[in-house]
Specification:
Strand content: 25-35%
CATH superfamily of the largest domain: Efflux pump adaptor protein, beta barrel domain
Strand order of the largest sheet: 3-12-15-14-13-16
Helix content: 25-40%
Number of helices: 4
Distance between the termini: 73 Å
Structural class: alpha+beta
Number of domains: 3
Length: 417
């Protein structure tokens, strides 16, 4: 027969209560523990990142710019007169000499004007010859008159001298003596006047012929101008080089000033680089540069900096030094690097993708085990083409991710595998 235990129900209740309390405490502890756990870091493939190591030492500051080779000297040939293109003698790409004919134009009105100017010159020359003959004839007549008067004077003078001697001997009258002397004096005066007329006639001849000669030269200059314009209808290169452009076609009507051709000297080229405006402030004239033509590297120096900014870039001209590599020609695309300065004993790293000079940003720094990377703030200083100075946030030997990590902007830690 079963004997009922005393306090059995009470003990079971206590035991159940204890178990419930333990379960509640364990659940609360588990909940608190889970709440303290950090979310799992996202995984990034190691092969997709580009790491770099912080170093200390010398750093070469450079500025890079893309550009083209352009001629240092370009000759633009313009139409001097109206004309119609009759013939194109050479095409772009041809090597030309100063006397090479590029185009042949026609202008009948100009040709007619040149012929008319030539006939005007010939008519003026004929007029000059006729005037010279007439003036010389008049001068000879004046000389003849002067000679006749002088002869009459000599005769009168001789007669006066004879009368003078006769008067001394009392063989002639005083009236004859005075008369012959007066006639001689009159003829002497007339002879002097006629001589002056001869001199004045000579000066007049020179003046009239000089005036006519000036008219001839004026007409000849107009004729030579028209003739030169006719000759310019055969458009010549004017300089040795390569014909780059010929923007006209046969049959086209041209006005004065129309650009007919562009000639460049391929042996004298310079590089025009487009440098970002944020980096152009460090570029000054005289800095050394290297120009990569994809077929060789040419040394050079900065010769000009454009004062204007266009599309966020500044044009920098680099004068090339030394012999050009084969294949170098105008409009060839090139890559240029300008050396700004050499910095000694500074902390630097390869330039992260989005890093800018004198800026602050965050980058992922690899942990010592290389399995994880954490985001750290970094302050950068002066920059170059592929490196940048580290002012704060990193130390020598730190490894950082240089590639674009914008997809992880919301993460402070990543795992690498």
């Amino acid at each position: 027969m079963d004997v009922p235990r005393k306090n059995a129900s009470r003990n079971r209740l206590i035991r159940r209560s204890v178990i419930a309390v333990v379960v509640i405490i364990a659940a609360s502890a588990a909940t608190f523990g889970f709440s303290r756990l950090k979310p799992a870091a996202p995984v990034v493939e190691r092969s997709t990142i580009w790491p770099g190591t912080v170093k200390r030492g010398p750093m070469l500051r450079q500025v890079r710019g893309l550009g083209t080779l352009v001629p240092e000297e370009i000759l633009f040939i313009a139409a001097q007169t109206d004309g119609r293109v009759d013939k194109i003698v050479v095409r772009p790409g041809a090597i030309v000499r100063p006397d090479s004919v590029l185009l042949e134009l026609s202008n009948p009105e100009l040709q007619l004007a040149a012929n008319d100017a030539e006939w005007q010159v010939k008519a003026a020359e004929a007029t000059y010859t006729d005037l010279r003959v007439k003036l010389e004839s008049q001068n000879l007549e004046q000389q003849s008159i002067a000679a006749r008067v002088h002869s009459e004077y000599v005769q009168a003078k001789l007669k006066s001298e004879v009368e003078q001697k006769l008067g001394e001997q009392g063989l002639t009258s005083e009236l004859n003596l005075k008369t012959t002397k007066a006639i001689a004096d009159e003829l002497l005066n007339r002879s002097s006047i006629e001589k002056k007329k001869v001199d004045i006639s000579g000066e007049s001849i020179e003046a009239q012929l000089a005036a006519q000669h000036v008219q001839i030269e004026k007409l000849r200059a107009a004729w030579q101008l028209k003739r030169a314009q006719v000759e310019q209808l055969k458009v010549r290169a004017g300089a040795a080089g390569v014909l780059q452009q010929l923007p006209v076609e046969v049959g086209q009507r041209l006005a004065p000033g129309t650009i007919l051709a562009k000639i460049a000297q391929p042996s004298k080229l310079k590089a025009e680089l487009k440098v970002p405006e944020t980096q152009a402030k460090d570029v000054v004239i005289g800095l050394k540069a290297e120009i990569d033509t994809r077929n060789g590297v040419i040394l050079g120096s900065v010769s000009r900096i454009d004062p204007a900014v266009l599309n966020g870039t500044v044009t920098v001209d680099v004068r090339l030094e030394g012999e050009l590599p084969s294949g170098a020609r105008p409009d060839l695309s090139v890559d240029g690097v300008i050396e700004i300065e050499r910095l000694n004993d500074i902390l630097f790293v390869e330039r992260p993708v989005i890093a800018q000079q004198n800026s602050s940003m965050t980058v992922f720094r690899l942990e010592p085990d290389g399995k994880e990377a954490v985001r750290v703030p970094v302050k950068f200083g002066r920059s170059s083409v592929s490196t940048i100075e580290v002012l704060e946030g990193l130390k020598v030997g730190d490894q950082v991710i240089l590639s674009d990590m914008s997809a992880m902007d919301a993460q402070n830690r990543i795992r690498l595998q």
